[in-house]
């Protein structure tokens, strides 16, 4: 996971950094850049032998690199072997403890681990043979809203059991069903617009 140690300046030099969004909400604390193919240096590859990332989203806060998600190249033919090899490599690292998940989709297999500093996940979509590796600095998670975090980090931590110690801020992007005042105001606003046009 060496890329998380790299400085923002080194990684973002000459690349466009995009702020994270969910519908009309913009996260002004976090941004990401895209790395593809030979832009991903060998030292940033998480595993030396089996499986190389050929696409990465690298994430930053205002000060430093905080995490990434990446997809493995050419995993269509031997995806099962690559997936098993990745699990074996992460599980054999004594710094990482595996987390139990409630995974109910038989076509998508998820795994998560935690170290003192990082949360790491692997998402394997069996139908399209896509394998993603996700990593985030644990201390950064509380600064994300849930919908942005799950969207960017492929539902990492979402399927933990209810007594998980991961707590994300809830992003209210739509009014709840009992917020009648919102709908009334909106209706009156539209009615006013319509009346102006018809006069």
Characterise this structure.
- This protein is an alpha+beta fold and 199 residues long.
- The protein contains 4 helices and 8 strands; from the N terminus they run H-E-E-E-E-H-E-E-E-E-H-H.
- It has helices spanning 8-12, 79-91, 146-152, 180-198; strands at residues 18-22, 25-36, 53-60, 65-72, 97-99, 108-114, 118-125, 130-137.
- It starts with 7 loop residues before the first helix and ends with a helix.
- The model has no long low-confidence stretch (mean pLDDT 88).
Question: Secondary-structure map with pairings?
Answer:
Blueprint: H1 8-12, E1 18-22, E2 25-36, E3 53-60, E4 65-72, H2 79-91, E5 97-99, E6 108-114, E7 118-125, E8 130-137, H3 146-152, H4 180-198
Antiparallel strand pairs: 1-2, 2-3, 3-4, 4-8, 5-6, 6-7, 7-8
Helix % is 10-25%
Main-sheet strand order equals 1-2-3-4-8-7-6-5
Distance between the termini: 64 Å
Rounded to an integer in angstroms, the radius of gyration calculated over CA atoms is 20 Å
Q: Can you summarize the main beta sheet?
A: 8 strands, antiparallel
- Class inferred from helices and paired strands: alpha+beta
Note the beta-strand portion. Answer: 25-35%
Overall morphology = globular
What's the total number of strands?
A: 8
Low-confidence runs of at least 5 consecutive residues: none
Q: Helix tally?
A: 4
Arithmetic mean of pLDDT: 88
Order of helices and strands: HEEEEHEEEEHH
């Amino acid at each position: 996971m060496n890329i998380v140690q790299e400085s923002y300046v080194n990684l973002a030099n000459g690349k466009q950094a995009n702020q994270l969004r969910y519908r009309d909400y913009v996260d002004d604390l976090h941004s990401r850049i895209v790395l593809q193919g030979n832009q991903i240096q060998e030292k940033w590859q998480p595993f030396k032998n089996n499986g190389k990332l050929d696409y990465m989203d690298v994430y930053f806060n205002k000060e430093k690199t905080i995490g990434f998600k990446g997809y493995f190249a050419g995993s269509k033919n031997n995806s099962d072997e690559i997936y098993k090899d990745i699990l074996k490599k992460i599980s054999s690292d004594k710094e990482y403890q595996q987390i139990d998940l409630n995974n109910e989709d038989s076509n998508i297999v998820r795994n998560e681990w935690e170290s003192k500093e990082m949360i790491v996940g692997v998402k394997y979509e069996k139908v399209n043979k896509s394998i993603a590796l996700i990593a985030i600095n644990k201390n950064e998670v509380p600064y994300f809203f849930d919908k942005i975090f799950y969207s960017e980090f492929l539902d990492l931590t979402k399927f933990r059991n209810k007594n998980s110690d991961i707590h994300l801020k809830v992003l209210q992007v739509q009014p709840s069903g009992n917020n009648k005042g919102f709908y009334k105001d909106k209706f009156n606003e539209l009615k006013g617009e319509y009346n102006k046009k018809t006069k």
